[in-house]
Design brief:
heterodimer; A: about 120 residues; mainly beta; four-stranded antiparallel β-sheet; B: about 110 residues; about 50% strand
Chain lengths: ~120, ~110
Protein backbone atom coordinates (compact mmCIF):
# COMPACT_ATOMS: atom_id res chain seq x y z
CA UNK A 1 0.00 0.00 0.00
CA UNK A 2 1.29 3.43 -0.96
CA UNK A 3 1.92 5.61 2.10
CA UNK A 4 3.07 9.21 2.25
CA UNK A 5 3.54 10.73 5.70
CA UNK A 6 4.34 14.42 6.06
CA UNK A 7 5.97 15.93 9.12
CA UNK A 8 7.70 19.10 10.21
CA UNK A 9 4.80 21.53 10.26
CA UNK A 10 4.17 23.92 13.11
CA UNK A 11 3.97 27.55 14.21
CA UNK A 12 6.69 29.86 12.91
CA UNK A 13 7.13 33.64 13.00
CA UNK A 14 7.08 35.72 9.81
CA UNK A 15 10.52 35.66 8.23
CA UNK A 16 11.30 32.30 9.81
CA UNK A 17 12.19 28.96 8.29
CA UNK A 18 10.85 25.44 8.41
CA UNK A 19 11.69 22.12 6.78
CA UNK A 20 8.92 19.72 5.84
CA UNK A 21 9.55 16.04 5.25
CA UNK A 22 7.53 13.37 3.49
CA UNK A 23 8.33 9.71 4.18
CA UNK A 24 7.30 7.37 1.40
CA UNK A 25 6.65 3.64 1.57
CA UNK A 26 4.83 0.93 -0.34
CA UNK A 27 6.32 1.80 -3.74
CA UNK A 28 9.68 2.33 -5.44
CA UNK A 29 10.18 5.98 -4.48
CA UNK A 30 13.09 6.54 -6.88
CA UNK A 31 10.86 5.81 -9.88
CA UNK A 32 8.38 8.62 -9.26
CA UNK A 33 8.24 12.38 -9.62
CA UNK A 34 6.97 14.08 -6.46
CA UNK A 35 5.12 17.27 -5.61
CA UNK A 36 4.22 19.58 -2.77
CA UNK A 37 0.71 21.02 -2.84
CA UNK A 38 -0.74 23.36 -0.23
CA UNK A 39 -4.18 24.46 0.89
CA UNK A 40 -4.71 27.64 2.85
CA UNK A 41 -7.54 27.55 5.42
CA UNK A 42 -10.89 27.53 3.62
CA UNK A 43 -9.23 27.83 0.21
CA UNK A 44 -8.53 25.62 -2.78
CA UNK A 45 -5.54 23.50 -3.69
CA UNK A 46 -2.36 25.24 -4.86
CA UNK A 47 0.61 23.46 -6.43
CA UNK A 48 3.87 24.55 -4.77
CA UNK A 49 6.75 22.58 -6.29
CA UNK A 50 7.68 19.43 -8.16
CA UNK A 51 10.84 17.36 -8.52
CA UNK A 52 11.63 14.61 -10.99
CA UNK A 53 12.59 11.10 -9.91
CA UNK A 54 16.34 11.76 -10.12
CA UNK A 55 16.12 15.45 -9.12
CA UNK A 56 17.04 16.53 -12.64
CA UNK A 57 13.97 18.71 -13.12
CA UNK A 58 12.66 21.03 -10.41
CA UNK A 59 9.85 23.57 -10.69
CA UNK A 60 8.31 26.10 -8.34
CA UNK A 61 5.18 28.21 -8.24
CA UNK A 62 5.92 31.91 -8.65
CA UNK A 63 4.55 32.51 -5.15
CA UNK A 64 7.39 30.53 -3.53
CA UNK A 65 10.22 30.85 -6.05
CA UNK A 66 13.43 32.01 -4.37
CA UNK A 67 12.11 31.18 -0.88
CA UNK A 68 11.34 27.45 -0.97
CA UNK A 69 13.63 24.58 -2.02
CA UNK A 70 12.42 21.10 -2.86
CA UNK A 71 14.76 18.13 -2.56
CA UNK A 72 14.67 14.38 -2.16
CA UNK A 73 16.80 11.54 -0.85
CA UNK A 74 16.00 8.40 -2.78
CA UNK A 75 18.15 6.29 -0.42
CA UNK A 76 15.92 7.38 2.45
CA UNK A 77 12.64 7.36 0.47
CA UNK A 78 12.09 10.93 1.54
CA UNK A 79 10.94 14.21 0.03
CA UNK A 80 11.69 17.59 1.59
CA UNK A 81 10.57 21.19 1.36
CA UNK A 82 12.85 23.82 2.84
CA UNK A 83 10.87 27.01 3.44
CA UNK A 84 12.59 30.32 4.13
CA UNK A 85 11.34 33.89 4.55
CA UNK A 86 7.93 32.60 5.52
CA UNK A 87 4.97 34.96 5.26
CA UNK A 88 1.46 34.90 6.69
CA UNK A 89 0.08 33.84 3.31
CA UNK A 90 2.19 30.68 3.42
CA UNK A 91 -0.09 29.43 6.20
CA UNK A 92 -1.61 26.22 4.86
CA UNK A 93 -1.80 22.48 5.08
CA UNK A 94 1.07 21.13 2.98
CA UNK A 95 0.59 17.83 1.18
CA UNK A 96 3.13 15.71 -0.60
CA UNK A 97 1.76 13.94 -3.64
CA UNK A 98 3.18 11.28 -5.90
CA UNK A 99 3.04 11.80 -9.65
CA UNK A 100 2.49 8.54 -11.46
CA UNK A 101 1.69 8.14 -15.13
CA UNK A 102 -1.67 9.75 -14.42
CA UNK A 103 -0.68 12.84 -12.49
CA UNK A 104 -0.97 13.17 -8.73
CA UNK A 105 -2.29 9.75 -7.81
CA UNK A 106 -1.43 9.39 -4.13
CA UNK A 107 -1.41 11.99 -1.34
CA UNK A 108 -0.24 12.19 2.23
CA UNK A 109 -2.48 13.37 5.06
CA UNK A 110 -0.85 16.81 5.17
CA UNK A 111 1.02 18.87 7.75
CA UNK A 112 -0.11 22.29 8.95
CA UNK A 113 2.19 25.27 8.72
CA UNK A 114 1.08 28.40 10.56
CA UNK A 115 3.01 31.63 10.06
CA UNK A 116 2.11 34.11 12.75
CA UNK A 117 3.75 36.42 15.26
CA UNK B 1 0.89 29.16 -17.96
CA UNK B 2 -2.22 27.03 -18.29
CA UNK B 3 -5.30 28.24 -16.41
CA UNK B 4 -8.16 25.96 -15.36
CA UNK B 5 -11.62 27.49 -14.98
CA UNK B 6 -13.95 25.29 -12.95
CA UNK B 7 -17.68 25.90 -12.55
CA UNK B 8 -19.85 26.21 -10.65
CA UNK B 9 -18.01 27.11 -7.44
CA UNK B 10 -20.82 25.53 -5.44
CA UNK B 11 -24.03 23.66 -6.03
CA UNK B 12 -26.89 22.16 -4.09
CA UNK B 13 -28.76 19.12 -5.35
CA UNK B 14 -31.17 16.51 -4.04
CA UNK B 15 -30.21 12.93 -3.30
CA UNK B 16 -30.58 10.92 -6.49
CA UNK B 17 -30.14 13.90 -8.78
CA UNK B 18 -27.52 14.21 -11.49
CA UNK B 19 -24.66 16.63 -10.79
CA UNK B 20 -22.39 18.09 -13.45
CA UNK B 21 -19.19 20.10 -13.00
CA UNK B 22 -17.09 21.56 -15.81
CA UNK B 23 -13.47 22.56 -16.22
CA UNK B 24 -12.12 24.59 -19.08
CA UNK B 25 -8.43 24.79 -19.88
CA UNK B 26 -6.86 27.93 -21.34
CA UNK B 27 -5.12 25.80 -23.97
CA UNK B 28 -5.26 22.27 -25.35
CA UNK B 29 -4.26 19.81 -22.62
CA UNK B 30 -5.33 16.72 -24.58
CA UNK B 31 -6.66 14.31 -21.94
CA UNK B 32 -4.24 15.16 -19.12
CA UNK B 33 -6.92 15.96 -16.59
CA UNK B 34 -7.90 14.36 -13.30
CA UNK B 35 -10.85 14.82 -10.93
CA UNK B 36 -10.50 14.64 -7.14
CA UNK B 37 -12.87 14.51 -4.20
CA UNK B 38 -11.89 16.22 -0.96
CA UNK B 39 -13.82 15.91 2.27
CA UNK B 40 -13.20 18.31 5.18
CA UNK B 41 -9.94 17.66 6.97
CA UNK B 42 -8.90 14.99 4.48
CA UNK B 43 -6.48 14.75 1.57
CA UNK B 44 -7.82 14.83 -1.97
CA UNK B 45 -8.79 11.46 -3.40
CA UNK B 46 -8.32 10.62 -7.07
CA UNK B 47 -11.62 9.66 -8.73
CA UNK B 48 -11.06 10.06 -12.47
CA UNK B 49 -7.75 10.07 -14.35
CA UNK B 50 -6.94 10.91 -17.95
CA UNK B 51 -10.27 12.73 -18.25
CA UNK B 52 -12.52 9.69 -18.35
CA UNK B 53 -10.98 6.70 -16.56
CA UNK B 54 -12.44 5.61 -13.25
CA UNK B 55 -9.88 4.96 -10.53
CA UNK B 56 -10.03 1.47 -9.04
CA UNK B 57 -12.59 1.18 -6.27
CA UNK B 58 -14.47 4.37 -7.16
CA UNK B 59 -18.24 3.94 -7.56
CA UNK B 60 -19.50 3.89 -11.13
CA UNK B 61 -21.87 6.80 -10.49
CA UNK B 62 -18.82 9.02 -10.98
CA UNK B 63 -17.71 9.68 -14.55
CA UNK B 64 -15.68 12.11 -16.61
CA UNK B 65 -15.52 13.15 -20.24
CA UNK B 66 -13.87 15.62 -22.54
CA UNK B 67 -10.57 16.37 -24.22
CA UNK B 68 -8.66 19.37 -25.46
CA UNK B 69 -9.99 22.31 -23.48
CA UNK B 70 -13.42 21.28 -22.21
CA UNK B 71 -14.04 18.65 -19.56
CA UNK B 72 -17.05 17.44 -17.60
CA UNK B 73 -17.39 15.54 -14.33
CA UNK B 74 -20.71 13.87 -13.50
CA UNK B 75 -22.26 12.20 -10.50
CA UNK B 76 -25.16 10.30 -12.01
CA UNK B 77 -27.12 9.89 -8.79
CA UNK B 78 -25.97 12.05 -5.87
CA UNK B 79 -25.57 10.21 -2.58
CA UNK B 80 -25.22 11.72 0.92
CA UNK B 81 -21.62 10.47 1.14
CA UNK B 82 -20.75 12.49 -1.98
CA UNK B 83 -20.87 15.75 -0.03
CA UNK B 84 -17.41 17.16 -0.63
CA UNK B 85 -15.44 19.63 -2.70
CA UNK B 86 -14.38 18.45 -6.13
CA UNK B 87 -11.32 19.67 -8.02
CA UNK B 88 -10.02 19.22 -11.53
CA UNK B 89 -6.27 19.04 -12.06
CA UNK B 90 -4.30 19.55 -15.25
CA UNK B 91 -0.99 17.72 -15.32
CA UNK B 92 1.84 16.94 -17.71
CA UNK B 93 3.82 13.74 -18.10
CA UNK B 94 6.99 15.74 -17.64
CA UNK B 95 7.48 17.10 -14.12
CA UNK B 96 6.28 20.64 -13.97
CA UNK B 97 3.46 22.81 -12.79
CA UNK B 98 0.21 21.20 -11.79
CA UNK B 99 -2.81 23.44 -12.25
CA UNK B 100 -5.93 22.99 -10.17
CA UNK B 101 -9.39 24.27 -10.87
CA UNK B 102 -10.91 26.46 -8.19
CA UNK B 103 -13.07 23.69 -6.76
CA UNK B 104 -16.80 22.95 -6.57
CA UNK B 105 -18.47 22.50 -3.20
CA UNK B 106 -21.33 20.01 -3.50
CA UNK B 107 -24.10 20.10 -0.91
CA UNK B 108 -27.38 18.27 -0.40
CA UNK B 109 -30.56 20.27 -0.92
Amino acid sequence: EVQLVESGGGLVKPGGSLRLSCAASGFTFSNYNMNWVRQAPGKGLEWVSSISSSSTYIHYADSVKGRFTISRDNAKNSLYLHMNSLRADDTAVYYCARSGSVGADSWGQGTLVTVSS
Amino acid sequence: DIQMTQSPSSLSASVGNRVTITCQASQDIRYFLNWYQQKPGKAPKLLIFDASNLETGVPSRFSGSGSGTDFTFTISSLQPEDIATYYCLQYDLLPGALTFGGGTKVEIK
